[in-house]
């Protein structure tokens, strides 16, 4: 079985060329080819994660993704949160989600709670970003 560690871009390019043949015709489970495919896929994934890590979405990105995916608008978010200005402030990163907001959005739009409870940056006056340690904790939606 011709498989090797992926340490360089050249190794990575080789692995991509090698695995490409299995996309046309998937190897049968339990064969040497299937084993080779699995090993190449794992090695490629490790290399990509080391060299091009993908950061998880922050809460605003998670909300925006759900809105795009489900066809929701900022007006839909406003109805959920009880105010157009509140929805706008959240989407423009001028206000942090409260625990209650995160719970409502998670429940109504089926976004995993963990995706909404991560720390993220807010924009200060003039659009400058300021650090926000996490979701604010008031139990009400204001």
Structural topology:
Blueprint: H1 9-24, H2 32-51, H3 59-70, H4 74-81, H5 84-91, H6 99-109, H7 113-116, E1 122-123, E2 129-130
Antiparallel strand pairs: 1-2
Descriptive key words:
single chain, 434 Repressor (Amino-terminal Domain), two-stranded antiparallel ribbon, 7 helices, elongated
Could you describe the 3D structure shown?
With 142 residues, the chain is mainly alpha-helical. The protein folds into two domains: 9-51, no CATH class; 59-130, 434 Repressor (Amino-terminal Domain) (Orthogonal Bundle), CATH 1.10.260. It contains seven helices and two strands, in the order αααααααββ. The chain has a two-stranded antiparallel ribbon. A hairpin with a 5-residue loop joins strand 1 (122-123) and strand 2. The longest helix has 20 residues, at 32-51. The radius of gyration is 22 Å and the shape is elongated. The termini are far apart.
